[in-house]
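#struct-pred

JT: dropping the chains for the assembly here, can someone run the whole complex?
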Amino acid sequence: MCEFATLESPYSMPVALHGDLDLDLTDPEAQTRSRALNQFLAGVELKAFKIAQAALRHEDDALDAVQDAMLQLARAYAGRPPQEWKPLFYRILENRIRDMQRRRTVRGRVMAWLPVRGEDEGEEPDPIAQAPSPDPQPARRLELEQAMTALERSLGGLPRRQRQAFLLRTLEGMDVAQTALAMGCSEGSVKTHYFRALRALRAELGDFHL
Amino acid sequence: MNPVNEPLTDFERNARVLLEESVSRIDGRTRSRLNQARHAALEAAAAPRRAWRWRSYTLMPAAGVAAALLVTLVLFNREPSVESPVLEGQHAVEDMDLLADSEGLELMDGWDGPFYEWASTENEGNVASDG
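RK: done, full complex below.
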């Protein structure tokens, strides 16, 4: 049983339950901790956004999820040892993503009763987006673009736990123990989810070469 | 089974390259919003909530005791109702009659409060002198 297994949903837990962990910036030690936290968040925010985007497939929702996770970590867990921040942060983020997916499911059921309207309806095409790229290697760029799109699409089709294990390991570079803490499961489960994700992605994408 | 902590296969390496490339292509607007979110989170963590919480937790028992005293005082000082619910119901019916009575409303139009107060005190004075 991992250490954070009891923190089923840190996102939805009242802050007071975690104790007084606010950073008092008049205290030099708290200033150091605040700087360390800033550095940590700056280091994970882009990857966290990508992970949230892969799960939610919506940019604004992904931004909201990352922002909420940052806030929750800073408010409730800033007092914890910095080496615990990463698994905690991703644990909070995953809970937030799951909350948003649940809400979206409910919203989808309600919206199914309303008349359909396309998202891009009435929008003019963006001339900047349509301008030719100044990239000196457009063919290479296009190749990467296509591979990225294919990978992201395949990731989006994976079951939640498999996608989580794959992204935490491959993109965030977390080891099994950290991934287990972040996912709130055993190391054995992480290995199983990761292996299944790899097998599914390989089956869909083949051994793509770059 | 592929042990997760062993060196990455070509597939995993390629996937990592692609994912890191996609991270590096995140646009400036999104980066800026993430940056703002980070600073907001750090500010929120540094906000002086501790003093407020300390005060609220300290005052909570005192406020509870005060509320309990107030409720006790109100309950003990309240005069018991001498009328039965049946009588109260009769008054309600009488009130309805008064409201429905158009003559009563006409009387209210010409309400002469001081006169009735004087008549009432006169009547009380007469009763007292008779007694």
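JT: nice. The helical segments of chain B are 10-24, 28-46, 50-77, 85-100, 102-109, 113-130. Chain B touches chain A through 38 residues (CB under 8 Å).
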